[in-house]
Amino acid sequence: MIKFENVTKKFPLGNLALDEVSFDVEDKEFIFLVGPSGAGKTTILKLIMRESVPSEGTILVDDFDITSNEFTQVEILRRKIGMIFQDFKILFDKNIYENIALSLKVIGLPDDQINDQVEEALELVGLSKKTYDFPIQLSAGEIQRVAIARAIVGDRDIILADEPTGNLDPKTTWEIMRIFKKLEKNKTILFATHNTDIVNSFQKRVLVLKQGRLTKDQRKGGYDI
Amino acid sequence: MNEILTSIRRTPYQSLAAFLILFFTLFLSTAMFISLSFLYGLLGYVETRPQVTVYFQTNIPQNEIFKIRDKLTNSDKVESIKYVSKEEAYKIYKELNKDNPLLLEMVTSDILPASLEIFAKKPEYLPELADFLKKEPGVDEVNFQKDILDRLLVLTDILRKTTIVFFGFLIFLAVLVLTTTTLFKIALKKEEIELLKLLGASNFYIKKPFLLEAFLFGTTAAVGSFVIILGILFSLKPFFDSYLKDITQLNLPLYFTQLTVWPVNLTFLSIAFLLSLVFGIGIAFLATLLATQKYLKI
């Protein structure tokens, strides 16, 4: 469960990234975060990851009040979350297996469990035959699939996707979305995007942001801005 | 291990600089430790020799010599006194010149002087004792080893102070170079470190490869420098053997025991190596922790 209560985020120069935003996300819920550039989508994801802290308000993630000054379990929080980025953030000097295994090594899993989980994730994203290829040998769509595999391994219950299809062509975009379709039953997903077609076709809950304010919270909504 | 070797391969010049600075620091510090141990051992040895020897005129009666001995004993400045009679002096003379019959024929016990070998409680008392003895009747000659002791004390003191200053400088230099090279490596792995943080890696997990690399550098530099020191030590052994031929053993007081530094032995070498190893790994760890603490901000 994720809960935002009157969350405001001001940047050091005073510009407002989020203005009193409140919403709840239930477990295993799929939510689109939509809005123009600078609306505050990425800020929300960064606040959940505790890459930054809000200026005001409270954020709860499962049992953690991550805005509390006493909150020190950032590592534990981040091990619950898988993050997918528009620019992939894949390590080009490591092969596909190593890139995905990194997500499991940091939580201290033994090698045999790492092998099993990486194989399972590669199967899910359809890259089983490219386990030991290097990112340079893959297409952009395939690299994003590696990033998705990395985000879902290790029993990470929450997936934060920051415009994961932003750099992909339409065909590859739909391939990626098919993977998200498979994931939606088992994970809580917050998906930030500009893509109207994706939002409209999925018919999931939509949070619309404009200039840092939450202007619409629509169940089974579309992208009508 | 593979990760560490890859890191070294990717930054060969920085790794070489880090290794060489550690190597030279350990080489010089181990060489200084061994030299200082020898000098302190030598100092201890000289301090156990008779510090003032007073020779009496041959005609002075034994009871007069004993009166002087008693005065010295009551002065509270003397640790012990050994009386060497004319007969004992002759025995020593005979032993020293047993291979030279001509010298033995020329000398009898009558012409050899009786003497007192005096051990002072502190080296500072030596001039005072010598002055006192020179004024006593029947004294022929007073020899004392103040000059040798003084020179050794000065030499040891200079070496000790130089070592401290040099040590400080070397440690500073080594930490500076190692911190800089670690920072360079951190900069190269910036993306990976940021990703690891987002994936929930602990601080120790991120620092671990840098610390392991420091451990590897510290260990190899300690082993490498010690092997060279051993080579030098054993190549100079014939020189030391002839130079220290009359000295069977040099010891260094070490808490409740005595550490033998000469002849060179396994215990002394093991201690020198262990110190070098701990010192090397310690410096490398310190520099790595400084770099990761300050610039990873984790």
UniProtKB/TrEMBL annotation, chain A:
Keyword set, alphabetical order: ATP-binding, Cell cycle, Cell division, Nucleotide-binding
ABC transporter domain boundaries: 2-225
GO molecular function: ATP binding; ATP hydrolysis activity; transmembrane transporter activity
Gene Ontology BP terms: cell division
Alphabetical list of PROSITE patterns matching this protein: ABC_TRANSPORTER_1, ABC_TRANSPORTER_2
Domain of life: Bacteria
InterPro entries for the chain: AAA+_ATPase (IPR003593), ABC_transporter-like_ATP-bd (IPR003439), ABC_transporter-like_CS (IPR017871), ABC_transpr_LolD-like (IPR015854), P-loop_NTPase (IPR027417)
Pfam families membership: ABC_tran
A GO CC annotation given for this chain: plasma membrane
Family listed: Belongs to the ABC transporter superfamily.
Protein name: Cell division ATP-binding protein FtsE
From TrEMBL, chain B:
Domain ABC3 transporter permease C-terminal: from-to ranges: 164-298
Superkingdom of the organism of origin: Bacteria
Primary location class: membrane
Domain FtsX extracellular: 51-142
UniProt keywords, alphabetically: Cell cycle, Cell division, Cell membrane, Membrane, Transmembrane, Transmembrane helix
Record InterPro entries: ABC3_permease_C (IPR003838), FtsX (IPR004513), FtsX_ECD (IPR040690)
One annotated GO biological process: cell division
Cellular component aspect of the GO annotation: plasma membrane
Entry membrane topology: Multi-pass membrane protein
Compartments in which it is found: Cell membrane
Membrane-spanning intervals of the chain: 16-40, 164-188, 209-234, 266-291
Family affiliation: Belongs to the ABC-4 integral membrane protein family. FtsX subfamily.
Record's protein name: Cell division protein FtsX
